[in-house]
From TrEMBL:
<dbReference type="GO" id="GO:0005829">
    <property type="term" value="C:cytosol"/>
</dbReference>
<dbReference type="GO" id="GO:0003825">
    <property type="term" value="F:alpha,alpha-trehalose-phosphate synthase (UDP-forming) activity"/>
</dbReference>
<comment type="similarity">
    <text>In the C-terminal section; belongs to the trehalose phosphatase family.</text>
</comment>
<dbReference type="GO" id="GO:0004805">
    <property type="term" value="F:trehalose-phosphatase activity"/>
</dbReference>
<dbReference type="GO" id="GO:0005992">
    <property type="term" value="P:trehalose biosynthetic process"/>
</dbReference>
<comment type="similarity">
    <text>Belongs to the glycosyltransferase 20 family.</text>
</comment>
<protein>
    <submittedName>
        <fullName>Bifunctional alpha,alpha-trehalose-phosphate synthase (UDP-forming)/trehalose-phosphatase</fullName>
    </submittedName>
</protein>
Length: 487
């Protein structure tokens, strides 16, 4: 039974680049299609009874986010469903090109994933970033009430916490970063005015969260180097205001993936995924992105085929790539390299009755995804850099049969939690090749032991525990300061 002595009341305001639903307007009216993404269901769990915190929600969750509908299109439309009330942010195409495509995706994404040579440092991008963060702020000014708790997400909104802090000094503000925070040698490549703005912006929050302790350390070093503030026990003291910086490894809806194993549609998809000719199946799924290490993976598989001939004709690698940003030249070029490499491997090793790779460029429904997770003997996840990587956690959670081997890159945030996986270095093709062979040869009992250990961890710390954990930190921060005698 929950027994909270100081039960606080208020509303939760989520700020993320996108709204939690798509708004479709036609002659018959307006429909809202709620996204099924992890963040949406995670924050919903807070408001819908699985809230384990000392907080009472007074209203629906308020959500501030960008919409590609125009203000005219949405005039008079009620943007709320049973769960959320949306407050749209309108950003013109030109501004969004420089803000979202430019600063966010052509600079911060590559730089923070350790691809500095393709990062574009353009003044107009930074100006657009400031302008767009102000648009999010403007959309919030009339929404925020004294007891609201504000939770801001990700690299598109790094300036926002401080903008809100200036105007609403008493509200609790949290900021969570979903991508890696890089080491200072990478971060310092940003012009000094930009990096100061980013650190000042993020430090407007009361609680700043990252996926791993490494990212926390890198961020704290950036704080020290850029604004000269050290920390004590992960607390930074800023003009008599304390900011907590800590690791909160995001997770998944464990039960949903585990239960899906017995869903008739998943059973059918699992059955359809394998032909009788396939003795062993290796699987991967990612968005098309250079951070996901798709070419490294193919090179590792090629090395495996070259060196472990005994597996020819017996193993198939099902590689699903989900279309993403393929209007951009760099992504098109990457895709054509992937196409060529798949073609080369097929041409060199394939036989009339055996395809070493089954490669598809499309997205798929949830049931097919879990069908593939549960049909495969090995999941091959090789990002060259990844904030967390949820695919590997989903693979583990969906294996109710306690079978299957996870091969995981040490560059994924998830590697810090999934030590029972076969951990590889994605730039080392030999390492990947040997791990594939080891995974294919692994005894069922060894598979089970590793799987069970990883499952236990993910079951205990699922996405709902993650949300509760972060949210509790936000609302309890004052008591925490007193307890630690920090203020
Ligand atoms: C960012 C960070 C961090 C993919 N294809 C299909 C499909 N998916 C789902 C997966 C998974 C999600 O998309 C991808 O999540 P990741 O974590 O792997 O990657 P990012 O999109 O890059 O996410 C990342 C994450 O934020 C959370 O903080 O882990 O590091 O880069 O859930 O299942 N789902 C369906 N069909 C598909 O074709 N149904």
């Amino acid at each position: 039974m929950k027994n909270f002595t100081t039960r606080k009341k208020g509303r939760l305001i989520i700020v993320a680049y996108r709204l939690p639903f798509k708004i479709i307007k036609n002659e018959s009216g307006t429909s809202l299609f709620q996204n099924s993404g992890g963040l949406v269901s995670a924050v919903l769990s807070l408001a819908q009874g699985s809230n384990n915190t000392s907080f009472e929600f007074e209203d629906k969750i308020q959500w501030i986010g960008y919409t590609d509908n125009t203000a005219e299109e949405l005039e008079g439309v009620t943007l709320e469903n049973d769960n959320f009330k949306a407050h749209p942010v309108f950003i013109s195409q030109e501004l969004n090109d420089n803000y979202y495509e430019g600063f966010c995706n052509d600079l911060i994404w590559p730089l923070f994933h350790y691809f500095p040579t393709i990062a574009k440092f353009e003044t107009k991008f930074f100006e657009a970033y400031q302008e767009a963060n102000l648009l999010f702020y403007d959309a919030m000014v009339d929404v925020i009430q004294p007891d609201d708790v504000i939770w801001i997400h990700d690299y598109q909104l790094m300036l926002l916490p401080d903008l809100i802090r200036q105007k609403f000094p008493k509200n609790k503000i949290g900021f969570f970063f979903h991508i890696p925070f890089p080491s200072f040698e990478i971060f310092r490549l940003l012009p000094s005015i930009w990096r100061e703005a980013i650190i000042d912006g993020i430090m407007g929050a009361d609680v700043v969260g990252f996926h791993t302790n490494d990212y926390v350390e890198y961020f704290l070093k950036a704080v020290r180097m850029v604004i000269g503030q050290g920390n004590r026990m992960h607390y930074v003291n800023l003009n008599n205001r304390l900011v907590k910086v800590d690791a909160f490894p995001i997770s998944i809806d464990y039960k949903k993936f585990n239960d899906a194993f017995d869903d008739p549609l998943v059973i059918k998809a699992r059955h359809d995924a394998r032909t009788p000719l396939m003795e062993k199946v290796i699987f991967s799924v990612d968005r098309l992105d250079y951070s996901k290490g798709l070419l490294n993976r193919l090179k590792g598989y090629e090395r495996f085929l070259e060196q472990y001939e005994e597996w020819h004709g017996r193993v198939s690698f099902v590689m699903m790539v989900v279309p993403s940003r393929d209007q951009i030249e760099q992504y098109q070029q990457m895709k054509s390299e992937i196409d060529q490499t798949v073609g080369r491997i097929g041409a060199q090793y394939g036989k009339i009755n055996w395809q070493p790779i089954i490669y598809q460029y499309r997205s798929m429904p949830f049931e097919e995804l879990v069908g593939l997770y549960t049909a495969s003997d090995v999941a091959l996840i090789t990002p060259v850099r990844d904030g967390m990587n949820l695919v590997c956690k989903e693979y583990v959670a969906s294996r109710k049969d306690e079978q299957g081997v996870l091969i995981l890159s040490e560059m994924a945030g998830a590697a810090a939690e999934l030590g029972e996986a076969l951990i590889i270095n994605p730039t080392d093709s030999q390492d990947i090749a040997d791990a594939i062979n080891k995974a294919l040869e692994m005894e069922p009992e060894d598979q089970r032991k590793r799987m069970v250990a990883m499952q236990q961890r993910l079951r205990e710390y699922d996405v709902f525990a993650w949300t509760n954990d972060f949210f509790t930190q936000m609302i309890m921060i004052d008591q925490e300061h007193k307890r630690l005698k920090l203020d």
